[in-house]
């Protein structure tokens, strides 16, 4: 039944994605036939009904951060002699390839004042970085495409191809020719426009998350590593701290170090605080003592104290690589109660692969894998499981000062996916996972990112 439910869920997601793709504007032949190249529009003449030239297009203004799926054009900036003026969208009758015609010979020209959420497409978006969410990559906008949709002109797509860059270097008649076969629908990209005035936070977030929420933490990590400094910080600002922290845990150490140095200390501290303890400690170790202390002093007292404790352990030891996220129980409880405890720790699911059983003094007496918890009857007692597991030997444990190479040997010998780190009194301090050991003992291969595969 569960397998069938998962298959139905997957089928439903694929069907929803197909419907979503089919509803994209650039899937329409009519839209693709009416595309107008932004690159070809810049410098194009603006004429009134009598055909006389009023000015030349300098830039196109659009409401990029708004509730609409396709940003509407709100006006043009045109050059009249030495003056630059704003022409509102309701004055436009037709936007052609390389030509704009006005509704009337009387033109209401205004000084341009950028409103919340508006951007200048040529200055703020064209040739700037953006995220191709479908292709999961960072790219640059070689051209932007406008098209009439219902009763307005909207931004429908972006061209990221090299031939388009070459087209823009050619004769003027080439520049206005769109290449619809290379267009990405605007709904499949997340743009950055650091010059844009900020609209209401919920509007900006809705606009960006509509595309970004589909990405996994590992995908976001790859994107963060490829972005420039300002775009990277803008993307982090769009994400919830928990989502951003998940992505930071998947980044290469050197890239994460740079990111934390670039961010405002308050923001960097919050991101580190949201990371899993072992990942957060690793990130802090790469900073200078002053930088580390700056972030720790901005964290909640309890979380900062926990990280300070982890940082007392040397790098390359079990204590230095362990996570302090533990699920513990006692012999007098049932499997059903243990499962309830695990459900409450769902946010730490990548850090938990077993449940430690403690006696009344907090000493370790057993370590039950999640598989054994899953297959046991709800009414079974933890004590019975501990007795049954005793036939296979004692729990696999190491001391905090155990070198990771030695811990790796013990992990292989125990055929386990993690090792408990215990003190001299056999009280658990944390758990070191297999992927953390491998990341440490195989540095020349980089981070193996086991969580990427699990997700």
Automatic annotation (TrEMBL):
CBS domain ranges (all copies): 322-385, 389-448
GO cellular component: membrane
Pfam families the record matches: CBS, MgtE_N
SMART domains according to UniProt: CBS, MgtE_N
Keyword annotations: CBS domain
InterPro entries in the cross-refs: CBS_dom, CBS_dom_sf, Mg_transptr_MgtE_intracell_dom, MgtE_N_sf, MgtE_transporter, PRC_barrel-like_sf
GO MF, one example: magnesium ion transmembrane transporter activity
Signal peptide positions on this chain: none
Superkingdom field: Bacteria
Protein name from the UniProt record: CBS domain-containing protein
The organism of origin for this protein: Streptomyces olivochromogenes
């Amino acid at each position: 039944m569960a397998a069938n439910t998962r298959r139905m869920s997957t089928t439903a997601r694929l069907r929803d994605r197909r419907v979503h793709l089919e509803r994209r504007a650039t899937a329409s032949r009519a839209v693709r036939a009416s595309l107008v190249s932004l690159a070809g529009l810049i410098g194009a003449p603006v004429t009134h009904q009598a055909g006389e030239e009023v000015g030349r297009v300098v830039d196109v203004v659009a409401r990029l951060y708004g509730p609409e799926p396709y940003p509407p054009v709100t006006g043009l900036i045109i050059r009249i002699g030495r003056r630059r003026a704003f022409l509102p969208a309701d004055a436009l009758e037709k936007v052609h390839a390389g030509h704009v015609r006005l509704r009337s010979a009387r033109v209401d020209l205004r000084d341009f004042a950028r409103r919340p959420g508006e951007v200048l497409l040529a200055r703020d978006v064209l040739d700037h970085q953006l995220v191709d969410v479908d292709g999961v990559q960072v790219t640059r906008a070689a051209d932007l495409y406008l098209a009439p949709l219902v009763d307005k002109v909207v931004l429908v797509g972006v061209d990221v191809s090299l031939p388009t860059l070459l087209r823009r270097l050619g004769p003027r008649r080439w520049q206005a020719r769109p290449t619809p076969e290379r267009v990405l629908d605007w709904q499949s990209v997340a743009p950055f426009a650091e010059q844009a005035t900020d609209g209401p936070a919920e509007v900006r977030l809705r606009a960006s998350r509509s595309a970004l929420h589909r990405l996994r933490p590992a995908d976001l990590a790859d994107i963060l590593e490829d972005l420039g400094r300002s775009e990277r910080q803008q993307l982090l600002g769009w994400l919830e701290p928990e989502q951003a922290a998940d992505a930071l845990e998947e980044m290469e150490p050197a890239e994460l170090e740079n990111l934390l140095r670039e961010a405002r200390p308050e923001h960097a501290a919050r991101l580190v605080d949201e990371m899993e303890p072992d990942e957060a400690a690793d990130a802090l170790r790469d900073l200078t003592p002053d930088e580390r202390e700056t972030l720790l002093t901005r964290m909640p007292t309890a979380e900062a104290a926990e990280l300070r404790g982890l940082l007392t352990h040397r790098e390359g030891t079990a204590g230095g690589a362990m996570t302090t996220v533990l699920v513990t129980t006692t012999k007098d409880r049932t499997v059903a109660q243990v499962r309830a405890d695990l459900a409450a720790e769902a946010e730490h699911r990548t850090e938990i692969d077993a449940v430690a059983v403690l006696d009344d003094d907090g000493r370790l007496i057993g370590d039950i894998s999640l598989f054994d918890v899953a297959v046991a009857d709800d009414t079974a007692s933890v004590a019975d499981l501990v007795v049954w597991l005793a036939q296979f030997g004692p729990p696999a444990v190491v001391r905090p000062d155990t070198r990771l190479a030695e811990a790796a040997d013990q992990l292989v010998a125990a055929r386990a996916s993690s090792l408990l780190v215990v003190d001299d009194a056999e009280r658990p301090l944390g758990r070191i996972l297999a992927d953390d050991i491998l990341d440490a003992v195989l540095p020349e291969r980089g981070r193996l990112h086991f969580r990427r595969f699990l997700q």
